[in-house]
Structures are given as C-alpha cells and as structure tokens.
Amino acid sequence: MTPAEALSRTTRLINQEIFDGRADEAAIARGLAASTIRMTADEANMGCRAGQAALTTAFQLIARMGIGVELVVPETPLIAQIPPLRTRSLPAALVELGDDLIPGSMVRASPGQAELTFVFGDSTCPEVDAVHVLVADTSCTLTRTDAPTRIACDLPLGGLAAGAAAAAIALEAVLPQIELAAGIQRTQQRRPSPGPPVKIDLAALFPDLGNGEIRLPEELTIDAISAGAITNAFVAVALWLLQTSTNVRIFDDDVAEVSNVNRCPQIRRSDDQEPKVEVLRASSTPLLRITGEQLRFGPDTMQQLQPFSGHVLVGVDDIPSRWRVSETEPKSLFVGATTNREAIVTNHHPGEPCAACAHPDLAVEEEFVPTISFVSFWAGLLQACALLAELQQLRSARRMTVFPFALGERSWFLSNELPYGARCAIDCDASATAA
After folding, report:
1. Which residues make Cβ contacts (< 8 Å) with residue 260, sequence separation at least 6?
2. How far apart are the two ends of the chain, measured CA to CA in Å?
3. Which of 32, 146, 210, 295 gives 66 a disulfide partner, CB atoms 3.0 to 4.6 angstroms apart?
4. Mean pLDDT on 87-110
5. pLDDT for res 365
6. What pLDDT, on the 0 to 100 scale, is given for residue 210?
7. Which of 187, 202, 217 is at the close of a domain?
8. Do 172 and 225 share a domain, yes or no?
9. Whole domain around residue 177: which residue ranges?
C-alpha cells in the first residue's frame, strides 16, 4: 500500500476542511511526508508518567498523519509497559514504532530542517519560536510566551491532552508544505485557531477530576462495542493511566488494515489483516487485561453478547447500534463519536435520556469516512475522562464536545445536560417525561 492510500482518509478530511475539496489528495500526502516536526525533551521532564504520555501521544498522532518526526530525546527508560511501544527505552521505542506506521514515513534523531519544534517542559532549546508544552495533572498549556516549567506529575491526563493539542498545531505548521505540493492555497474562509497559545483544563468538562486525586475500585470491568479508532484511543489512555486492575472485553468482527493506522494508536502497519480484537488483546498488560469476541454487535448477536458489565463503552459508527446498546440499559453507558471537526461523548444511565435521545438521527451512509488521528483520539480521551469522573461521583446524562481544530480558541468545548422530553429514536421512558 502506498503512503497516499494509507493516508486516504486523513487527506480527504484535510482536503474538505482546509482546501474546500479543491486539492489533489495524493499531493496532500506528499506535502505531509515532506514536512518534519521536531520534539525536544530532557531526562528530567521525561522522568514522570505525564511527561512521557505527552511526548508519546504527540509523536503517535503526528506520525500517524504521515508527518516526519525528529526526536531530540536522551535515552530514558519507559515509566511502564505501554503497548504498542516494544522496547523499554523511550526514544528507541518511538523510532521502532515509527518504522511500522505509515509507509515511507520518517523518524530521525539527526538534526535537520523542521517546520516546528515542540519543547517539553523546561528542557533546554535555543529556538526562540519553539512551542513549549507545559503539563499538570488534568491541564496543559502550549505556548511560545509563558515561562517554561518542569513536568513533574504522574497523573497523565494533562499530558495526553497536550499531545493531542500538539498534533493539531503540527498540522497547521505543515500547511505551507502541503500548499507547495498541491499547488493550491488553503481556504480563504476563516478557520478557528488550533493555537498556540492553548490552555486546556479537563476539569472544566469533568469537575470531579479537578483535584487530581482519582479513586478507582480495586477491580474494574468494562465492555467495549467496536475495536475501532475510539476504542483504540481509550485503550491508549488507559495504558498510561491505570494503576489498578482493569478488565476490558471488546466485541468486533473487523480486521486491521493499513488504512486504519492513520487513527488507531494501537494498530501498526504490520498488523494488516489481523483481527482488530486480537491486536487490542496484544496490548494487554498485568494491570489492563483485554479479552474479546470476534463478533459484531447487532440484532442477531445482542443476546449472545449479554449480559454486559456495569460500564459499557460504544465507539461504533453505526448509530442504530448505539440505540440497541442503550436498550439493554447498562448501569453506565459512554458513547464516543466524531465528526470532521468534533469529538463527542455522551453518558447515560437507566431511566435517563438515552443514546437514542442524544443521537436520534441516522447519519448519511458514507462508504469512505474522512478521519484524522487527533480527532479520534479526543473521543477516546473523553470516554476515559467521563468514566473516571463517574467513578468519583455519579452525574446525570450529558453531552460533552471538544473541537480539536479549535483548541486555541476560548470556546474549545461544550458541555450540556441531556434534556428529558427530547425526541428519541426508540421512544424511551425519559423521552416521554416532561422536560
């Protein structure tokens, strides 16, 4: 498979959102490949879980867009076993992973030309226009002007958000190379800014995470419908986050393809044609035990797959499947979804507005859905945060939306309660209750 074919969903989204659909998408892929982003970090800032999560997430999401990466990172041991990384040295693990992602993508340690440099924490860097990535427990700042501070926290939520924010900034930085390759200018319509500056506080969306002290049960059991991009992202977040025993059971009958590498952080190019459930099972660690059934959730298999656990994650594109899962009334349901510009999670409990209230309309069937790494990742990160917040305190049904292309704006998210009495595709009891 060629780089253009592997990146076809990413280049379609970039073409639609940034070039008004006028660009040659193979040329967009060439522009991405002709670009490089530099990442600079020292051992002190990579000595904690949050620092390593920020760097690894930024690397994954940028490299999976087909953009080259230059690593200026000393030999530092990985803080924990974090698949799909396979060696215990952080830079060596990233180089090895990068060689197994988009065909022809470049990861280097030697200095060269780069479109942008990210500096993690207060690592030394002589470049005056570098973007500093500053991380706290549940928040992050990406800035050219703020005084840099050491990354020294172990809760990785802020670092994971920082990595996703860096990927959107990186795409903006390489647009001149894409314009050059495509021979066409980006849209003249106003687009929101991905930053910098970026200031993200996940506690604004999930107040129960605000103090950084997260209580987890001794053992947690989760069911996940779909082994696609959103569940991949949830697993990626869980691997950095978990310090308690967790069981995840995944249902999906699909196989991995090279075209999935652009957005699925647990899938490598060498996983081509392996069942997705088996790829995710291979991401198991002593704390995160992943099992699965190679079955698609649907009318014919609903009874076979039940009973579900108390916590169910849905990341499937098929909207009627979201409704059917909701009809089983799990104790807690978290539905992740994306559009070109949005990452969304809705949470539900029996008797409350359900998934068919939150997602009442069938989407236009598209055989070829545009996708990009950092939008899909945000949906999985939101699912993880919603689950963590609920484990602290039960909250009513809500819709939480992040705009991954607009993290440099003041309104980078929305959070709303789901109303009773709303239109519902399955006419649940809450839809018949007066608002």
Report:
1. 228, 229, 267, 276
2. 53
3. 32
4. 95
5. 64
6. 80
7. 202
8. no
9. 3-202
Cα angle 12-260-57, degrees, rounded to a multiple of 5: 95
- Distant-in-sequence, close-in-space partners of 108: CB < 8 Å, separation ≥ 6: 36, 68, 69, 70, 71
- Inform me whether the pLDDT recorded for 243 exceeds 80: no
Q: What domain count does the chain have?
A: 2
Residues 226, 188 share a domain: no
Task: Give me the pLDDT at residue 435, please.
Answer: 67
Same domain, 53 and 81: yes
The residues, ordered by sequence, that sit 6+ positions from 171 with a Cβ below 8 Å of its Cβ are: 14, 65, 67, 194, 372, 374
Rounded alpha-carbon distances, angstroms, from residue 62 to 17, 37, 306: 18, 8, 38
Average pLDDT of the residues in 168-172: 98
Q: How far apart are CA 123 and CA 44, in angstroms?
A: 8
- Same domain, yes or no: 121 and 240: no
Q: Is 140 left (phi over 0), alpha (psi -120 to 50) or beta?
A: beta
Q: Can you list the positions of beta strands (E) in 288-411?
A: 288-293, 311-314, 332-338, 343-348, 398-402
Report helix, strand or coil for 269.
helix
b/e for 205-227, b at 16 or more Cβ within 10 A?
A: bbebbbeeebeeeeebebbbbbb
Give yes or no: residues 198 and 217 share one domain. Answer: no
Q: DSSP secondary-structure letter at 89?
A: B
Ordered alpha helix ranges (H), 256-331: 276-281, 302-305, 319-327
pLDDT at res. 301: 72
Same-domain check for residues 425 and 410: yes
Question: Does 228 score more than 90 pLDDT?
Answer: yes
A 10 A CB-CB count for 314 gives 29
The length of the chain in residues reads: 435
User: Is the domain of 296 the same as that of 224?
Assistant: yes
Q: What is the pLDDT of residues 328-372, one digit of tens each?
A: 889 999 999 999 999 999 999 999 999 999 999 887 666 789 999
Is the pLDDT score of 303 beyond 80? no
* DSSP bridge pairs for 133: 120, 142
pLDDT at 180: 98
Mean pLDDT of 372-387: 98
**Is the same domain home to 226 and 95?**
no
Specify whether the CB–CB gap between 347 and 382 falls below 8 A.
no
Q: Which of 164, 180, 202 marks a domain boundary?
A: 202
Helices (H), 244-318: 276-281, 302-305
Token reading at 137: 């427990």
Look at residue 244 in the predicted model and tell me its pLDDT: 81
Tell me the C-alpha to C-alpha distance, in Å, between residue 126 and each of 58, 118, 131, 197. Answer: 21, 12, 12, 19
Of 154, 129, 153, 171, nearest to 408 by C-alpha is 171
